Amino acid sequence: MKISRLKHKWKKAVEQVNIFKQHVLHKGGIIHHVKKWCDLENLPEDKIGAMLTLEGIEPIGRDLDKLTQLLDGGVLSVGLTWNNANLAADGIMEERGAGLTRFGKDIIHLLNERKVFTDVSHLSVKAFWETLEQAEFVIASHSSAKAICAHPRNLDDEQIKAMIEHDAMIHVIFHPLFTTNDGVADIEDVIRHIDHICELGGMKNIGFGSDFDGIPDHVKGLEHAGKYQNFLETLGKHYTKEEVEGFASRNFLNHLPK
């Protein structure tokens, strides 16, 4: 039964890659598949770059060769877990809060070799700290500041400072659940997270991690990717043009694995 479930999860992962290729990349030739970091650095002005990521290593089971296949196919960031435990680590909602397994450390070693990001956004607190010790290329792809919103998935000040010390990116999330304690949010509420991370010294470590994956609830004025301009214009009332450009793209480009 377990083998059957693993095969199903692997099949679903491969299907999602195929959907990306068939339905996203063929959108009028505008979308360019970023398979290597140099593809992003050399992206033509008239193209939009899109890259594959993996959230949760369940599809690979215990097989690092399967992860290698995904990396060969262009996966450039890997989160070891979603909210629950798996063979690599505990997720943030797992009550026992354990850290990395030996297999999880093997995965990070492979990601280091391949210059792929290890994403800490869903890891348990213990696994977060152990990942910072193991991973060369760290990213929080969709996490905000716990001091502003106390959701367990957000990062506390010590974690944020450690990410800055590690020269890692923190991508602020556009979901009301992670933005305010009452789950009702507008653009100014998102900016409060940016303000807080900047106060801790992370001006050059901030990016955006919308989590626009079909979420049912939205930040007012920032309901979908088409509203990004609203967000940037409001940010421009708080920060300089150069700082906003940093948040929007340059900070991330400056932190690409080398």
Automatic annotation (TrEMBL):
One of the record's GO molecular function terms: metallodipeptidase activity
InterPro entries from the UniProt entry: Metal_Hydrolase, Pept_M19
Any single Pfam family the record assigns to this protein: Peptidase_M19
PROSITE patterns in the cross-refs: RENAL_DIPEPTIDASE_2
Top-level taxon: Bacteria
GO terms, biological process: proteolysis
Designated name of the protein: OrfD protein
Source species of the chain: Listeria monocytogenes
Taxonomic path: Bacteria, Bacillati, Bacillota, Bacilli, Bacillales
